[in-house]
Amino acid sequence: MTATTRNLVQVFEDQVTRRGDAAALTFKRGGAWKTMTWKEVGRRVRDVAYGLVSMGVNPGDRVSILADTCAEWIIADVAIMSTGAITVPIYQSNPAHEVQYILQDAGASWIFVDHDHQAAKIREEAARLPDLKGVIRFFGDPEASHEHTLASVENRGVAFREQNPGSHAARVAAVKSTDAASYLYTSGTTGNPKGVVLTHGAWTYEAEATAELHLVLPDDVVLLFLPMAHSFAKVIEAVWFGQGATAAFVESIDKIVDNAGEVRPTVMPSVPRIFEKAYDAVLAKGLATPGVKGWLFGLAMNGFEAWADGKAKGMEVKTFGFRIGEKLVFPKLAAALAARFGGRMRLFVSGGAPLSPKINWFFTLLGFTVLEGYGLTETSAGTCVNRIGKNKIGTVGAPVPGTQVKIAEDGEILIKGGGVMKEYYRRPEATAEILKDGWLYTGDIGEVDADGYVKITDRKKDLIKTSGGKYIAPQNLENELKGDPLVSQVVVHGDQRKYVTALITLSIENARAWAAEQGLSEDEPLHENPRVKARIQQAVDAMNAKQASYATVKKFVILENDFTQERGELTPTLKVKRKVVTERYKKVLDGMYTE
Q1: Which residues contact 169 (CB under 8 A, 6 or more apart)?
Q2: Rounded to two decimals, what is the model's pTM?
Q3: Residue 98 is part of a domain; what is its CATH number?
């Protein structure tokens, strides 16, 4: 592919011209679905951009957004970029002190927020934000003198446009593809987050490269719920603009499936945790079914386990239970799941973390296509993806057109291409560590097969080296265990230790259903129950049987509570923060190494 010359606003405005009265986005508010056309979104973007210019926003300024994924987020983002300024998204789950750090580090002059609880974070940190000129609220009335409403900014923009016709087009045309479009701050599992500088050219490259793969088509309805501060969501935004599809915004994470049933999307980008939860929900319902139906479900799922294990080895294993499932269980599951997602789902795309191959095989068995992809914030997310018609489960696919991947001598994955970041903002030393001779050093370990498909085997920094000198990839063990219906999360431990241990949390709904079958009391704490521990030991033993002796989990502890974002144990994309968890449960881990 040749290098792109357009900026992302021009990609968006091309669709405004081309698609005009077609639906650009839809969202549910006040109990009803509302739709905005490309022409309407384009008009609002221009008015907000004019408003920002009238308030003193200049090219190169940094303007932040702290809000849930919604139509207004997109309008604000494109308006910021239209002025030549740079968008600095912040995760809506970030506490006030983290919001303050990012605003200060980026030197943001303005911030958009949605609801009052986000505006309150800025009020709390106002004394430590001397360069912040004000807050623009999507919803609600101003609570302080520095707060403005989005409507008032748009009204200012209308007045400014009448006095300065044509100035918007001139500003957009002046934005070069090499100019920064976004500073995306990494989630900062170790130390303070760094601002990844991504250019307009990086996003337009992603839009053009993925267009060649036909993942999203102009008549698709794309379900959007991922946090827009995440590079996966941002690359979906670019792809949506490039194709002129319709984006459907969910009300909340809890309403994903309900909203899907209403809006009937055709494409859904997602993180693995959502697929894991859907799988767990199917199992919970099946395990709780009494009588013959429940027995048949169990038989069929045992057959599925053997089939999925076989698939991973390139074999077709169809036990008696699997054949029963093919006739009596799987078709009903497929129909029910398809209906829950609206009946038109053409494609799921999974990214942000590794997806368990078993869960992918489960969706495949039920007639769905889940294409797993791979990328980093530093590569604008879209680096590799599986292909429609050639989906190699267990890999993250081949590089998108125009991107190169090679494996270093130590197994590290290196990337070169149009999506690679410009730099870490004001971090020249950190930039030099990761960008060398035109290649980005990912920190991931992997391999490339004969078809150019990439398989991630682990994070380089997460590799465990036992005191015996053996290297172990914890993600492989964790994913294997997470495929068990009673298991929610797993953290494998053992660096510089004699053997490998694990912290395990229960999928409480499934665990309760299993406990009820066993006649256990509803009030009994499951994490301490010997029968629950014996049941989890079976899953650990099954996994250990496939490992070299030094990689087997010798001991585990079932924790009382699942990991949560609120307690800082999960990132906004629901990945476990390994460092936080190991520090929080240090005594528990140490106890497993006490003779």
Answers
A1: none
A2: 0.89
A3: 3.40.50.980
